[in-house]
Design goal:
- The protein is an alpha/beta fold.
- It has 3 domains: 277 residues, 4-Layer Sandwich (Metallo-beta-lactamase, Chain A); 148 residues, Metallo-hydrolase/oxidoreductase (Rossmann fold, 3-Layer(aba) Sandwich); 87 residues, Ubiquitin-like (UB roll) (Roll), CATH 3.10.20.580.
- Helices cover 32% and strands 25% of the residues.
- An 8-stranded mixed β-sheet has the order 8-7-6-3-2-1-21-22. Strands 9-10-11-12-13-19-20 form a 7-stranded mixed β-sheet. The protein has a 5-stranded parallel β-sheet with strand order 15-16-14-17-18, with helices on both faces.
- Strand 23 and strand 24 form a beta hairpin.
- Helix 5 packs across helix 12, helix 6 packs parallel to helix 7 and helix 15 packs across helix 17.
- The protein is globular, with a radius of gyration of 28 Å.
């Protein structure tokens, strides 16, 4: 449809992470953010997921650009995976551009992508969209809300934001700019719902800095702090706390080193000396070391996961040491985080979290901050995003109480904002793709379904040789890792069952390889099922000699 203004979320609406949004104006398309998510307990066969861009790729000739609001993984992490299909210019602030160049360089794409760096608070045009960045405080430098002016009206896409009077790195949220936009008139505000259930205020980064300094000063032994790599203010706070306690500070994890390089490139952290490397940290006395680590969300390949599992090549933690989780649990990651915390506790490490110490504040607005922004912007319509259903419903109720007409939608809904009253006029197909090395696999496809089945039911490989008439030669071999160990005699019994089943087949079936292979697969599956009450994936290697 042409001649309208529509909002089309392809990820991040009704869920945490995977933020991927599209605005349509008179047939032209603008994408905003392109983030990833984690598999979690719902998808144990998957570590990282990205939104399925198929709907947008099919309309790539009308895609005028991609705007990235800030450098968190749930808003930027899918760019390197999806850009080869989108192939559009990317507009971003200086810090996002610095982070993105490193990501694209690692993916071998840097020379292909047009990155247009826009100054914080700047205004530019990508026809038919008139775009303006509005500075907001968040737990990453240079986060921006995006004002999208069109002939149909203005939409404010808030991105992630909060009201922090002292965010430490970068200026506070530009409330005057939001007030000016409100006076100009805002048709719709598409806004962050993460903390819509939280009363009061999200708190200040400055308070965390004070508390970390006080906590680290009193600790003995080695200290490790886990936080988001791009939370540059938090990294700086830990480094300053270490210095005040007479300790040296090291970075553990590639994403932290990349974020540090991007931050220094943009003029941040200039008052701090270079961090120690992981190798150098191993030579520092225990009482003189603070480590900043990746792994606050329980990522299995992160530095903290290796330390907790005692597999890190340079350091270990034990009795008398402390790990501070200076972050929140992203929904879906609870089990992985708690597993790491339990491994640390088992080794005698003291674990501190935001549940019992003031070592983290959220980067998202609580209810008092939402009320303040609605008072400044005065949108006609509110569209809650960036949250699960309970967050978005509560955001909608709050918006209605403040005079806005709220619309709660989900991924794939095409919400026409103008002309006329907002309405969901069509549906775009949406889904998730699993990142599997350099491949993107459909989450509901055959490959991942087979992998999930193998995860829970195991896999059995049967190898057998037959002659031209289909008679079994020698003894079939059965391999079933994860189902039987080396002392079990069941594999030999299953091999005998397989040989008998092959011998009982009618002669014509034995002459067809495909038929013979399927009969062998069925015989092995039944034999395992009788013994284990499982239905494993069965692969048959058939050799006819």
């Amino acid at each position: 449809m042409t001649g309208d203004l529509a909002f089309i979320p392809l990820g991040g609406t009704g869920e945490i992470g995977l933020n991927f949004n599209v605005y349509r104006c008179d047939g032209q398309l603008l994408a905003v953010d392109c983030g990833l998510g984690f598999g979690g307990p719902e998808h144990p066969e998957v570590e990282v997921m990205v939104p399925d861009p198929s709907w947008l790729v099919a309309r790539r000739d009308r895609l005028v650009g991609l705007v990235i609001t800030h450098a968190h993984e749930d808003h930027i992490g899918a760019v390197a995976h999806l850009w080869p299909q989108l192939r559009c210019p990317i507009h971003a602030g200086p810090f996002v551009s610095a982070v993105l160049r490193r990501k694209l360089g690692e993916a071998g794409l840097l020379g292909q992508v047009e990155i247009i760096t826009q100054a914080p608070g700047s205004r530019w045009t990508v026809a038919p969209f008139d775009l303006e960045f509005l500075r907001v405080a968040h737990s990453v430098p240079e986060a921006q809300a995006l004002a999208i002016r069109t002939r149909h009206g203005t939409v404010l896409h808030t991105g992630d934001w909060k009201l922090d009077p002292n965010p430490l790195i970068g200026p506070p949220t530009d409330e005057a700019a939001f007030a000016r936009l409100g006076e100009e008139g805002v048709l719709a505000m598409v806004g962050d719902s993460t903390n819509a259930l939280v009363e009061g205020h999200s708190g200040s980064e400055a308070e965390v800095r004070r508390n970390l300094a006080a906590i680290i000063r009193k600790l003995k032994g080695r200290v490790a702090v886990a936080c988001f790599a791009t939370n540059v203010a938090r990294v700086e706070s830990v480094a300053l706390a270490a210095r005040a306690a007479g300790r040296e500070c090291a970075l553990f994890g590639r994403s932290l080193r990349n974020a540090e390089a991007a931050a220094r490139e943009c003029g941040y952290l200039r008052d701090l000396p270079p961090f120690l490397t992981e190798e150098q940290a191993g030579d520092v006395p225990d009482s003189k070391l603070v480590m900043i680590c990746t792994g606050s969300q329980g990522e299995p390949r992160s530095a903290l996961a290796k330390i907790a599992g005692d597999t890190h090549p340079h350091v270990s933690l034990g009795e008398g040491d402390t790990v501070i989780f200076s972050s929140r649990m992203i929904p879906g990651n609870e089990r992985a985080i708690l597993r790491i915390q339990d491994e640390l506790a088992r080794a005698g490490v003291e674990v501190m979290t935001a549940d019992d110490h003031m070592v983290h504040v959220s980067g998202h607005p609580a209810r008092d901050e939402l009320k303040r922004l609605y008072g400044l912007v005065k949108p006609k319509y509110a569209v809650p995003v960036h949250g699960e259903w309970r967050h978005m419903n509560e955001h909608a109720n709050l918006a209605e109480s403040l005079g806005a007409e709220a619309y709660v939608i989900e991924d794939g809904d095409v919400l026409r904002l103008a002309p006329g009253t907002p309405d969901v006029v069509e549906a775009a197909p949406v889904g998730r793709l699993a990142v599997d090395g350099h491949r993107l696999l459909p989450l509901d496809g055959e490959l991942l379904a087979a992998r999930k089945k193998m995860l829970f039911n195991g896999v059995v490989v049967a190898s057998l040789a037959v002659d031209g008439a289909g008679r079994v030669l020698g003894k079939p071999q059965i391999s079933a890792p994860g189902l039987f160990d080396g002392t079990d005699d069941e594999p030999a019994q299953i091999a005998a069952d397989l040989a008998r089943a092959m011998g009982d087949l009618p002669a014509p079936m034995k002459r067809e390889d495909g038929t013979l292979r399927e009969a062998a697969r069925s015989a092995v599956r039944k034999a395992v099922g009788r013994r284990l009450r499982k239905r494993p994936s069965v692969e048959v290697h058939l050799l006819r000699v």
